[in-house]
Q: What sequence folds into this?
């Protein structure tokens, strides 16, 4: 394990200390857990996003694209929400 120093404001330290006391662990352990989960999730999310983008490429290639006029989106959303007929 490597030692590192970080600066935290009073409120964050107090919140970490409360949670550490509740869980019976140290502030450092909580920080390691959170960083580990965040880093693992970040790697997974990025790859999933790239896979989704690559998998969807060209899916709508056979559809015609229509031009929108100013206000078309708002009118469409109003119809969806029942604000206009």
A:
């Amino acid at each position: 394990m490597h030692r590192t120093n970080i600066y935290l404001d009073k409120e964050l330290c107090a919140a970490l200390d409360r949670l550490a006391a509740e869980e019976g662990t140290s502030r450092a352990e909580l920080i390691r857990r959170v960083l580990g989960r965040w880093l693992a999730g970040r790697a997974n999310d990025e790859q999933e996003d790239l896979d989704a983008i690559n998998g969807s490429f060209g899916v709508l290639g056979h559809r015609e694209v229509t031009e929108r006029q100013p206000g078309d989106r708002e009118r469409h959303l109003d119809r969806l929400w029942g604000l206009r007929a």
Observations:
- The first helix runs from residue 10 to 23.
- The mean pLDDT is 84.
- The radius of gyration is 24 Å.
- The CA atoms of residues 46 and 52 lie 10 Å apart.
